[in-house]
Amino acid sequence: MKSHRFLSAALFAWLFLINILVSLAHEGMWIPSTLSKLIIDDMRNAGLKLTAEEIYSINQSSLKDAIALFGGGCTAEVISNQGLILTNYHCGYSQIQSHSSIEKDYLRDGFWAMTKEQELPNSGLTATFVVMIEDVTDQLLAAANGLEGPQRQKAMSEAAAAIITKATKSNHYEASIKPFFYGNAFYLIVTEIFRDVRLVGAPAGAIGKFGGDTDNWEWPRHTGDFSIFRIYADANNKPAAYSESNVPYSPRHSLAVNMDGVNEGDYTMVFGFPGRTDQYLTSFAVSQLIDDSNPMRIAMRKASLAVIDAAMAKNDTTRIQYAAKQPRISNAYKKWIGQSQGLIAYDAIAKKKAHEAEFIKLASTKDPSGFSANVLGLLEELYLDNNQYALAADYYVEFYTYGPELFKFSNNFAKLLNHYDSLHKAGVAKTEIERLRKVADGFFKNYNKRVDEGIFAAQAPIFTRGGPGIIQSPTLSRISNKNAGEGILTAREIYRSTTFANRAKIDAFFNKPSSKAAAALVKDPMFVIGQELVGNYSKRVKPAYDAFKQVEDQLMGAFLQSTMELFPDKTYWPDANSTLRITYGKMEGSKPRDGMAYLPYSTLEGIAQKYKPGDFDFDAPPRLLALHSERNYGPYATDGEMRVCFLGSHHTTGGNSGSPALNAHGELVGLNFDRTWESTMSDIMFNPEICRNIMVDIKYVLFIVDIYAGAGHLVKEMNLVSHKDSSDATLKTSKNEQHGLDRKE
């Protein structure tokens, strides 16, 4: 394959400046360090009252210093000078679940720490702030100048390592270099990671998950999707592991909370860590997504969810055990359905093909080498040749990673069982057994054999009938064939004979380990099937799939470079890759289909209307309904209404969960948590007419915290501001110097 010329950082900036003249105001996820050069004028024309320096700065406090990566996949924001952070309920759900039991059912009843001493630590939970973002494209490309293949990659890797070492020398920061535009640009991202993050408050599940799976990705929405945590630091305000001696973190910046409410047409923006988008995929890739990948993933998750949902509805213990697992499965399941429907309805493939035809036409006349014109043909051939590996990888993820839990649990024993004699001889078998005891403690706390067997029974026939041969387990195939492909019979045979689903038998092995016992477990059908799946994936699928992705990245980089040069009047922004981004738009509804209109906000009245006593999704706390009946909203109503959620025309995706919705002054007005079902296509193709994100109104959050839960001490930590009756509405940096409402003059 002919290597393509990479764009320089200067050319990228030039292209962006040209493109911004015709950019769609609501599309794109922008790197905050580039705002001053690229889009700040457009943002200010749309209504922004801040300077680029007030949004992103490395020399002074700015909005970016209040935005944190929460755990590994959500966003949170600092809302007080005592390290209080706000994120989604579903982002903090696993922590809430881990502290819950039948006796202390925080998932059902909610949790509120009335003192800092009552705040609950969470092992492994982190909050990560971006210290600095720097374009290092020219440095990496200079290091690789004139080199090809492995030598080029080696030179760039060494240059990247040197840049990272310099950025983290003599400080406690961490750093990474991320590729953008399929390797046409590179940015250094320096971060500060806090490792003592404690649960402060969470509403009752009937508030935080109101609407459940029924309303997920839907509008109107009435979900109080928020939870509150606090960051702790050492005595020097530096990150530290959990310790009782740690103190609340003093942030560089905390967000002011706006009390005026947000209205239709108001400028708003979302600041956070969007996970992944694929805006530049070709028609071939989108076709595979719609025709192969999504249907299989939807079928696998539909099968498991039917089992899990029925079990959770019948038993409180099971409900708590699977409370955090179920959303991880169901969220993507419903998203993929909406994504495929949206792409088909918007005729995405035809639009991609039309662009590609124009690309080939222009490339044929403007690129004498012929490479640009041929790159699409190379991509099409690549997808056709590697479809089985992509599909096999998807099947593996759905069956092994998100399917029966016993696969992953039994795989924890691989080291001990496959090498028992050598480990015993070396005197380390006992240490490995003690590690596995802890793994078993955590596993069985949230494990239900009947549910797991049901998932296996539901998914195994889909896997064995549809999965490519390269990923199939010979043992599973043999058992399945013996049972005529009946999933229930196959699962029953395996789960009746496996040791790994029985805690007493596992403990018996721990207490009296031996070479003979280990040899018996090596033959356990669940362990064997799991090992065959892992082995097939690691040896037959992953190497080929990784090679495919590497070539795909190279070809996509060439395709995107040529696209930018051939179509300089179009808008280009880097796909989301879990790095800090800002997107802007306004509060507004939409008309997604003929005869249907989405109003821009919902109110507490909608909860009363949807309320179904005892219903899994639509039950509501009596106190909440009583407060609504009395119109007892405290100071948190807007125009006499208790607004719950609102829509915005922002370009968001997974990872933006928990991101702050900010007004023109950079003040908190809401908390992003979802998109409408039609909008899930925006990961692949953004439609500004219908794509809308869903946010919980910050005043509803305060109403629940203060009036409903009686945790007003948390509101007193915040800096509440108003612009009413104010002639000077410039941003006031939140220093939390006073409690209550601060009317800005």
What does this 3D model show about the protein?
The protein is an alpha+beta fold. 46% of the residues lie in helices and 14% in strands. It has 29 helices and 21 strands. The strands form 3 sheets. Strands 1, 2, 3, 4, 5, 6, 7, 8, 9, 10 and 11 form an 11-stranded antiparallel beta sheet that branches. It has a 7-stranded antiparallel beta sheet with strand order 14-13-17-18-19-16-15. A hairpin with a 5-residue loop joins strand 2 and strand 3. The protein is globular, with a radius of gyration of 27 Å. The chain starts with 8 loop residues before the first helix and ends with a strand. The N terminus and C terminus are likely disordered.
Q: Any chance you could write out the topology, listing elements then pairs?
A:
Elements: H1 9-19, H2 35-38, H3 40-46, H4 52-55, E1 67-70, E2 74-78, E3 84-87, H5 93-98, H6 106-109, E4 111-112, E5 120-121, E6 127-135, H7 137-143, H8 149-168, E7 174-180, E8 185-194, E9 196-202, H9 205-208, H10 212-215, E10 227-233, E11 247-248, E12 257-258, E13 267-272, H11 283-314, H12 316-321, H13 325-345, H14 348-366, H15 371-401, H16 405-411, H17 414-418, H18 420-426, H19 429-445, H20 449-466, H21 474-482, H22 487-497, H23 503-511, H24 515-522, H25 525-566, E14 581-586, E15 601-603, H26 604-610, H27 622-629, E16 643-648, E17 660-662, E18 668-675, E19 693-697, H28 698-708, H29 712-717, E20 720-722, E21 741-743
Parallel strand pairs: 12-20, 20-21
Antiparallel strand pairs: 1-2, 1-6, 2-3, 3-10, 4-9, 5-9, 6-8, 7-8, 9-10, 10-11, 13-14, 13-17, 15-16, 16-19, 17-18, 18-19
